[in-house]
Amino acid sequence: MKTPTYVAVTIALTAVAALSGCGDDGAGSGGGRKITFVQGVKGDEFYISMACGAQQKAKELGVKLDVTGADKWDASLQTPVVNAVAAKSPDAVLIAPTDTQAMRQPEQQLKSRGAKVIEVDTKLDDASIRETAISSDNERGGMLAAQTLAAQVQERGAVAAISVKPGISTTDARLKGFEAEIKKHPGITYLGVQYNDDDPAKAASIVTSTIASHRDLVGVFAANVFSGEGAATGIEQAGKAGQVKLIAFDATPKQVEALRKGSIQGLIAQKPFDIGAQGVEQAVAALDKKPVPKAISTDLIAVTKENVDQPDVGKYLYKGAC
């Protein structure tokens, strides 16, 4: 994911606008091309940051970009959003599909109407619909999380994982990497994963209950933004902040604040700004009938209290608005 400079875009893409469907009111001169970005979910700074990157690249290339998404991470809610987008016949669509299989038909509808489909962050099991998939190396990110957590708990005790739900390409890969790596640490007992449906309150409840039922719990891995925010709350509610170590994916402002005060010990930060920018760039390349790689993998970094203020690390931290 980049080393991008977070330049201010002339559209004031506020958190609300980025989530509810903002467009570039001045761009669109590039042959009248229209691109839509369908976020995985509204209200997630990961996707807001991605929208910022996409908007900046759209202005640079002279295309019109709209941003939309569902209120929850749910294929049944994302489907009508995608159907509405398809009805407008955009030239290309960036989409973070919320299920590896359930979103196949809606994406196929986009393609059948002539849109170039670029999958960003998440992807379908079926690669035939998309031009390319752009995402972090999520399996490696899960391994990095396990290594970071093992160091934080000094290689001993019980640890657990918390995630959204099965069937999401990114979080499934993160769990796969985490579980493979944590098994390499013989002093650590892995209690398995529990799912929270991307609900921070449910994540908090799961973590609080796990702490109560496992006195030897010393660490938690949270596989996405809302899992991490909820897990931090659950650890605090149990009075175990700093005692039960938490490694979470992503680096939202709220997560970074929790890191600074000690509720979170490590964040596996992605580069959503770059994913969005590359998504628009590859969409335009596809429309221009230029070669497009079938997959683009972006990097991650482990952010800790010790390195969070370093300039090269600060570039990885997410934004609530552009």
TrEMBL record:
In terms of SUPFAM superfamilies, this protein maps to: Periplasmic binding protein-like I (SSF53822)
Q: Which UniProt keywords apply?
A: Signal
**Signal peptide bounds:** 1-17
Top-level taxonomic group: Bacteria
Q: What is its main location?
A: other
Keyword Lipid metabolism in the entry? The reply is: no
Q: Which Pfam families match?
A: Peripla_BP_4
Keyword Disulfide bond listed? The answer is no
> Which subcellular locations apply to this protein?
Cell envelope
The record's listing under CDD domains reads: PBP1_ABC_sugar_binding-like (cd20007)
Q: Name one GO cellular component term.
A: cell envelope
Domain (Periplasmic binding protein): residue spans on this chain: 35-290
Question: GO: which molecular function terms?
Answer: carbohydrate binding
Entry's family note: Belongs to the bacterial solute-binding protein 2 family.
Q: What is this protein called?
A: Sugar ABC transporter substrate-binding protein
Source taxonomy: Bacteria, Bacillati, Actinomycetota, Actinomycetes, Kitasatosporales
